[in-house]
Amino acid sequence: MALKLKTKLLAGFMLLVSLLIVAGSVSILEFMKLSTSFTTILENNYKSIEASKTMLEALEREDSGILLLLLGEWEEGRKILHESDKVFMEAFTVAKKNITEANEDELIADIQRKYLHYKEKWARPIVDTFKEGNIDWYQSNAHQEFIQLKTSINQLMSINQESLYEKATLLKDNGHRAVMPSIISIIGAILFSLLLNFYLNQQFIFPLKKLIKAVKSLNQGDFQVQSSNKNKDEIFQLELEINQMLKRIARKNDSR
Amino acid sequence: MRLEVIFKILGVVLLFNAAFLFIALVIAYSNQESSLIPLLFTTLTCIIFGLFPMVFSGKHEALSFAEGITVVVSGWVITCVIGMLPYLMWGGEFNLIDAWFESVSGYTTTGSTILNDIEALPKSLLFWRSATHWIGGVGIIIFVLLILPHARNARITLLNTEMSELSKSNFHYKARTTIQILIVVYVGLTLVETLLLRLAGMNWFDAINHAFATIATGGFSTKNSSIAYFENVWIEVIIMVFMLLSGIHFGLIFGTITGSRYNIFRSKVVRSYVVIMFLGIMLVALKLVINDFYSWSESLRFASFQVISVGTTTGFATVDTAIWPVFTQMVIIYFTIQCAMAGSTSGGLKFDRVYLFIKSVKKQIQLIKHPAGVFAIKMENKTISDSLERQTMLFVVLYVFTFFITTLLLTTMDIDLTTAFSASIATLGNVGPGFGNVSSLGNFDGLPNLAKFILSLNMLLGRLEIYSVIALFTIRK
Hints:
The complex is a heterodimer of chains A (256) and B (477). Chain A is mainly α. Chain A has helices at 5-70, 74-97, 104-123, 135-216, 234-255. Chain A has two domains: 5-190, Four Helix Bundle (Hemerythrin (Met), subunit A) (Up-down Bundle), CATH 1.20.120; 208-255, no CATH class. In chain A, helix 1 (5-70) runs antiparallel to helix 4 (135-216), helix 2 runs antiparallel to helix 3 (104-123) and helix 3 (104-123) packs antiparallel against helix 4 (135-216). Chain B has 19 helices and two strands. The longest helix of chain B has 28 residues, at 3-30. Chain B has a domain at 351-474. In chain B, helix 12 (268-290) crosses helix 13 and helix 12 (268-290) packs antiparallel against helix 14 (326-338). Chain B is globular, with a radius of gyration of 22 Å. Helix content of chain B is 66%, strand content 1%. The A-B interface holds A 1-3, 8, 11-12, 15-16, 18-19, 22-23, 26, 29-30, 172-173, 176-177, 180-181, 184, 188, 191-192, 195, 198-199, 202-203, 230-231 and B 3-4, 7, 34, 37-38, 40-41, 44-45, 48-49, 51-58, 85, 88-92.
């Protein structure tokens, strides 16, 4: 391959540049994926988990409200129930708008149905009815509905937690895959530079040093530059030109 | 030493790897696998580093012995480094040491793995694992020699360094023809086995991967439970036949196909190799029956598969031999030490050296009886030179010394003796599975990182036949 020095240099640098471009593109691509995965986790699962927690908390407070009504504390009980209902419905709306996992829609519908049943239990009057102080009514009605609803909300939280764990594992792998090309390309670029340095020395510096030595030896009357360059590149051409020039000078000297 | 010449040939080595990486890349792309980016990046790295020396280097004819040794040893090391990149970049169970171990194990056709869940790997990486076996089986340098243009003298030097004296003994051709024969037999056996495995019920993907691993006497499977997964006698029989063939000198296989007088049936070494293998199978099967492990037929089936698998340095498994009686384990360890024939794809000590060693011992005994006598050792009707005999004896000593040192080093890390001993011998012999914690259906994951690194060096020493490595480090002195 009789490539010119310019072409060789250009080709060498082009290869180095292409390695860096590929590594850079791969890393950017993987980091973009990583950022999307973060957003997905936050938007899809974390929101639903937080909503489930809020629903559970509101539900616990509603249970306390029912117990207060059973004790005849009408005003206190009603206040807690209405506030908790508002909180529950807000959290439920968040969860309903954020259906991302398989079977999540069925669970949401189930929670909605069960909550309406549960709400019916405390929406009707309790104070001053047979229900007041009736612990048996609480056990067989309100508490049963409460437990079933809690189980469904826990299920909703659980599928989102599992999905979050899976995505986090994937995120770890994606992170690894985003960083690795950069690390390897840095090592590759260092090796490449060493290799390039070797070839620059071999193809430019050594032939030039030899040429300088040969030109210096002209002072000792040696009118021929011995070529040591096997490649037909610019340095080889320079050697040829110097030899031609020396021949012309020698001829002129002879004619005088 | 002309580094530019060495770099140029190493560039061809990288480009050859890039061809197989590209196939893995196509698999990853068509299945939209997570290994796409790691494979793409490794392929491009290979191409860039492979092409670069070609830009600067001109034509080079001859190679000196020192240059030849450097090309062979560094070619293997660079190949192993490139081979680990897809694993390392993909992640999963692979860290730096594990990726290196898996890569070295693949190229040296050892077949030991660190993976607990092989089936979790994407198809493209499973293919790459098997491809490393196939590239390393006949020797990456042999492939390079076939495609290296204008390099007759370089070819002879490299062939002499890549193949031992014994390996070349049954090739009666010039360097280029020898290489062509090796490749033709290698590719031919792979194609036939792939087809037969497909007919026996494997899908194309598994058939190709298992054919790669069998003909290269590697042992990587695409399944966690290796060949036991298929529960198919025909698949086991096909793999056994091809393991046995891959353990025989390729020159003799070629001679048998072409009707030459240098063939399998006339070779005394092949006869002895097969007879000893048969005896091993019978001993193991008998012990399994006596100890009420299996019925006669099952004992024969499992014993023949395991003995052939280990005796040819392949390392596939149909059963966990770690639970077998100690006697059967000792027989299998003997085959781990003996290995298969020179001139095949198997690594380790080689049966020919064991054969020559025994003959040499007989000669020494005769010399004690008759000190003035002249005794010659003959193998395949050819007189073995004193230098080859000495080389072989020295190799046996070096081999035993290496595996003793490795065992010693492993025991310093509190690894139990069975595991340390069998892991050392199994990696040096490029067999794959050992006993204890690294048994046929186990893996090397539980070993400390330093132990994995030492064992990976052992694999390289076994594949490069120790001498090349010693020569590389002593050549300037």
